[in-house]
């Protein structure tokens, strides 16, 4: 039986981890993710888990140790934010190329500089090409649910890739919401035991990991790795279906909110989707045909599915909570526009940079975006496609 | 299960490579011949050998096998001819051109 | 622990031939002999920082290691093996593993003294049950002989080249064994290829079987970087010890122990002369450099003797 509780996003993720009882958790503090290892350390101190908790001296080492543990045959993870993720950058690629199914609880925060502790997505967007699976949450419930599903996806034999479970710093990580938790035994049963095929501590057969690859192999190795990514979407859907049967909550690659007859749409990631839903509800009451696509799985990118969901949309605003410094907009904008192009989509698309460094996004701001889309639709011209929202000009 | 590295030569197609480029197994480098690197090789004069084994630890290439406390013949498939063993032998039981 | 050289040599080889280290490499001599500290029947996971040893001993698909092996990156051998050791503890605790494993990681001086220093320090401070072995050849040899903080003063390297305004590396080398000893780990030792490897074999076994973190610093000459006659490696090591440039000592539970004191300490020139990287020190007019080098060796030697006398 599920139980209701009031929890912050960090505590919810920490509880999911207690229920999973992973083998090794190396961690280093950084705001706003610090609470996850903090809560977890108290579970260790009170014997609620039998995880090896390794409080290392840096994020580079937390990811390095998580990689070592995973290669050794353990279910491992770490948690971080912002510069911590940037410091791990090299290691992210190594985890993925070694096909190690470890997890990272990421609490999104702006990258320095200037130093800022609040939410944007510049940290995880920098890791979008690292070969990790990336999943994002709108609220605390989704952060918890994604964490419970994480290892089923990453450890799947057709996938075997690391997974990043992302939520918005402070907005969901620290805000307390009502949330429904699964029973411990239900989670344990759902996640199951980790049974790797080859691992360092396999007494039957030693293993060597991390070779030097000459040019004759490197490109083939990268293509081989890409094959794991190709299977992710289907596995995400299969795992979500099974999860729905124990939780009653349904998940896909992305959520379509009031998209059935939408002419104008917003595509975005994370907590601001909640604000956008409020704006949509208000506008729908006025009879406006507006909707939202909220990305859950960002890597791999469900391009054709998103293009299909936007098939009848006339104007779309893609919202990036990170700058790309391409003079064109952000990474999500580039991905969605490329998806539309490949699918010969007709929607006029613009790309907004918003919410950097914790800049608040209000319902009125999102109503303004839909208003701008109305103008684009009427004029039949997207105008400037690289825009900022909520900037003092 | 140990893998067969002979199937992982430089002509292997991407699907044939091992997942994560791991190698299950050990000591697969024995299949790689480094003996070709040099034509100068140490010569073992068994008659002079007192089986002190002092030549064994100095070899950077593990080319002096020991079985039942006795050293055997040089592994010329892998010996790179560095000459260190020549100098390590107190009995002149190893010789090599240019090394004394 | 009783020591028998022939029995140590009779153990199965744990570093297979076919690796691609240079002819006469001191690094693999260090590795082979450290691994002989393992008891037969015990399994091991070997870690390795990026460097000559890594690119040459696990060139896909050829691993020279007879045990499980992990290379992660240049600066994180300490942290990587911390994670492996953590996994061992976790799997043991959960009853998923019966066998005994030991954990040994190798790094060159670049990966140990410099870029991997933080990761090493963390692993030592947390007292993981592992051994970190530095094969110290005193420069970044894999990238082509660049200076590291282990490079001795006045050495001619590609980033401290000797020139009209330069006498080679201007600074002294870092005393890493002392720095690690200051972490108060159970076992620290410095050794090289002398006494028919008895010192190295005994220290390796102690390091591997002492519970908690252990650090071994092994002088492992590089014929390319040091520019000596390749077959002379054992003589070079002996001179390192007899001149007191590379003293043999241990720090056991905080107690400093001098393992060898030469009957007659040789002048530092004897160690420097056979090495091309110090050739400029023997030019007329550079006598003061040799004097300065000798003075530093003497100062460190006296300091070590003082520590060991307490």
Question: Care to give the gist of this entry?
Answer:
Chain B is low in regular secondary structure and 100 residues long. Chain B has one helix at 84-88, and strands at residues 23-24, 43-44, 66-67, 70-71, 94-95.
Number of structurally distinct domains of chain B: 2
Question: What is the number of helices of chain C?
Answer: 12
Contiguous uncertain segments of 5+ residues of chain C:
none
In the residues of chain C, how many domains can be counted? 1
CATH-defined fold name of chain C: Rossmann fold
What class do helices, strands and sheet pairing of chain B give?
Answer: little secondary structure
Q: What is the architecture of the largest domain in chain B at the second tier of CATH?
A: 2-Layer Sandwich
Oligomeric nature of the chains? heterotrimer
For the secondary structure, the number of strands of chain B is 5
Helix and strand element order of chain C: HHEHEEEHEHHEEEHEHEHHEEHH
Please state the structural category of chain C: alpha/beta
Gap between N and C termini of chain C:
25 Å
Using the 3D structure, state the CATH architecture of chain C. Answer: 3-Layer(aba) Sandwich
Alpha carbon gap, first and last residue of chain B: 46 Å
Rounded average pLDDT of chain C: 98
Q: Round the Cα radius of gyration of chain B to an integer and report it.
A: 18 Å
The average pLDDT score of chain B comes to 96
> Could you name the CATH class of the largest domain in chain B?
Alpha Beta
Order of helices and strands of chain B: EEEEHE
CATH hierarchy class name of chain C: Alpha Beta
Number of strands of chain C: 12
């Amino acid at each position: 039986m599920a139980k209701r509780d009031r929890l912050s996003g960090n505590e919810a993720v920490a509880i999911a981890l207690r229920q999973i009882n992973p083998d090794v958790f190396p961690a280093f503090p950084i705001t706003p993710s610090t609470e996850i290892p903090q809560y977890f350390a108290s579970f260790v101190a009170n014997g609620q888990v039998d995880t090896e908790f390794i409080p290392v001296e840096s994020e580079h080492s937390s990811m390095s140790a998580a990689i070592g543990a995973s290669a050794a045959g353990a279910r491992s993870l770490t948690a971080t934010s912002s510069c911590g993720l940037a410091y791990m950058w090299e290691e992210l690629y190594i985890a993925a190329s070694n096909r190690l199914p470890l997890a990272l609880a990421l609490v999104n925060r702006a990258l320095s500089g200037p130093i800022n502790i609040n939410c944007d997505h510049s940290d995880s967007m920098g890791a979008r090409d690292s070969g990790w699976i990336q999943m994002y949450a709108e609220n605390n419930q989704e952060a918890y649910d994604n964490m419970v599903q994480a290892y089923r996806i990453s450890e799947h034999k057709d996938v075997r890739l690391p997974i990043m479970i992302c939520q918005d710093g402070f907005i969901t990580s620290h805000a307390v919401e009502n949330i429904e938790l699964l029973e411990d035994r239900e989670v344990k049963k759902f996640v199951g035991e980790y049974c790797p095929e080859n691992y360092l501590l396999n007494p039957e057969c030693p293993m060597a990991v991390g070779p030097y690859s000459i040019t004759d192999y490197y490109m083939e190795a990268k293509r081989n790795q890409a094959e794991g990514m190709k299977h992710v979407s289907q596995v995400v859907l299969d795992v979500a279906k099974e999860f729905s049967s124990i939780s009653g909550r349904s998940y896909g690659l992305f959520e379509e909110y009031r998209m059935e007859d939408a002419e104008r749409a917003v595509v975005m990631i994370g907590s601001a989707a909640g604000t956008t839903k409020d704006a949509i509800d208000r506008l729908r009451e006025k009879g406006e045909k507006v909707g939202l696509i909220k990305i859950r799985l960002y890597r791999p990118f469900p391009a054709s599915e998103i293009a299909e969901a936007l098939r009848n949309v006339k104007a779309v605003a893609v919202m990036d909570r990170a700058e790309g410094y391409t003079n064109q907009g952000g990474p999500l904008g580039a991905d969605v526009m490329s998806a539309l192009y490949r699918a010969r989509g007709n929607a006029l698309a613009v790309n907004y940079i918003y919410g950097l460094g914790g800049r608040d996004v209000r319902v009125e701001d999102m109503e303004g975006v839909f208003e701008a889309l109305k103008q684009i639709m009427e004029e039949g011209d997207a105008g400037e496609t690289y825009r900022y929202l909520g900037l003092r000009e | 299960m140990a893998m067969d590295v002979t199937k992982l030569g430089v002509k292997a197609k991407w699907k044939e490579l091992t997942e994560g480029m791991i190698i299950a197994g050990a000591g697969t480098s024995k299949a790689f011949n480094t003996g070709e690197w040099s034509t100068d090789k140490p010569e073992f004069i068994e008659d002079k050998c007192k089986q002190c084994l002092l030549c064994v630890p100095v070899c950077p290439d593990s080319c002096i096998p020991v079985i039942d406390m006795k050293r055997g013949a040089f592994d010329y498939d892998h010996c790179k001819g560095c000459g260190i063993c020549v100098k390590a032998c107190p009995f002149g039981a190893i010789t090599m051109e240019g090394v004394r | 622990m009783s020591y028998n050289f022939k029995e140590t040599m009779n153990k199965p080889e744990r570093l297979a031939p076919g690796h691609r280290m240079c002819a006469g490499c001191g690094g693999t001599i260090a590795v082979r002999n450290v691994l002989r500290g393992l008891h037969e029947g015990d399994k091991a996971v070997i870690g390795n920082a990026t460097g000559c040893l890594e690119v040459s001993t696990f060139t896909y698909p050829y691993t020279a290691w007879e045990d499980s092996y992990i290379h992660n990156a240049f600066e994180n051998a300490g942290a990587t093996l911390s994670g492996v050791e953590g996994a061992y503890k976790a799997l043991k605790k959960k009853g998923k593993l019966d066998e005994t494993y030991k954990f040994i990681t190798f790094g060159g001086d670049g990966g140990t003294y410099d870029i991997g220093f933080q990761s090493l320090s963390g692993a030592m401070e947390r007292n993981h049950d592992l051994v970190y072995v530095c094969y110290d050849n005193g420069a970044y040899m894999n990238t082509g002989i660049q200076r590291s903080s282990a490079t001795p003063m006045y050495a001619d390297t590609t980033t401290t080249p000797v020139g009209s305004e330069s006498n080679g590396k201007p600074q002294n080398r870092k005393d890493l064994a002392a720095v690690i000893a200051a972490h108060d780990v159970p076992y620290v030792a410095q050794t090289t290829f002398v006494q028919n490897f008895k010192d190295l074999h005994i220290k390796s076994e102690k390091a591997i079987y002492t519970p908690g973190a252990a650090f071994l610093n092994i002088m492992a000459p590089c014929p390319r970087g040091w520019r000596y006659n390749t077959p002379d490696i054992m003589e070079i090591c002996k001179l390192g010890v007899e001149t007191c440039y590379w003293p043999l000592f241990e720090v056991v539970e905080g107690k400093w122990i001098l393992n060898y004191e030469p009957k007659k300490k040789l002048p530092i020139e004897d160690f420097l002369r056979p090495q091309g990287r110090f050739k400029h020190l023997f030019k007329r007019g550079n006598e003061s450099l040799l004097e300065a080098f000798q003075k530093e060796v003497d100062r460190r030697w006296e300091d070590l003797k003082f520590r060991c006398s307490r």
